[in-house]
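Today's session is about reading a structure prediction critically. Students often jump straight to the picture, but the first step is always the sequence itself: look for stretches that repeat, for charged clusters, for runs of hydrophobic residues. Only then move on to the predicted structure, which in these notes is written as discrete structure tokens rather than atom positions. Here is the chain we will use throughout the hour.
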Amino acid sequence: MAKDPAFLFYPGDWLGGTLGMTLEEKGAYIEVLMLQFNRGHMEGRMVGQVVGQLWDKIKHKFIQDENGLWFNERLELEKNNRKAFTDSRKNNLKGNNQHGKKEGHKVGHMTSHMESEDEDINSSSNSSSTYSEKFKKVWEQWKQYRKEQHQTEYKGLQSEDTALMNLNELSFNNEETAIKIIKHTMSNTWKNFIVPTSIKKSINSQVQFDPIKR
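Below is the predicted structure for this chain, in token form.
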């Protein structure tokens, strides 16, 4: 199976967590983060080969595991969250997810129909079981808003599926949160989904960390 090539990155968290660092230190920091993303937990020797003496300047952003290998805790969390999401989505497509009934709709449960070119968000009889009526209405408003406000439309089902996947991640699979994100974005006439500050604070209150961790 191909390795997931992406993880969520929060520019605001990055800027706040790197205040006081030089541009050189920031460059070294992101370089080591990418090394961790591709290689996993790292030996200090490996990191030193990549960023040299700058490692001493940014080492406080990382911790060691039980084997003495270095890793950034926030990046580890984002990778795990991404994996949990993709695994859940695969289960949704297979119809194996146990949370998709009356316990509340998740945006992830709404994307499986997008995989088939023969299905349509409004006409498919299966859409009623994967979408709540409330979300379908807001999603249609969102597409109409993009068309009228920004003269852009999704280029087919795959493009729309990607947008739903992105919204899924931003809302942590919660439909009500997803609706708030859509409405917040439209009310500010933005083109792309923007998470309201109130939601960010709610998420950060559950997990306290610095840009990609402290």
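Discussion point for the tutorial: The first strand starts at residue 63 and ends at 64.
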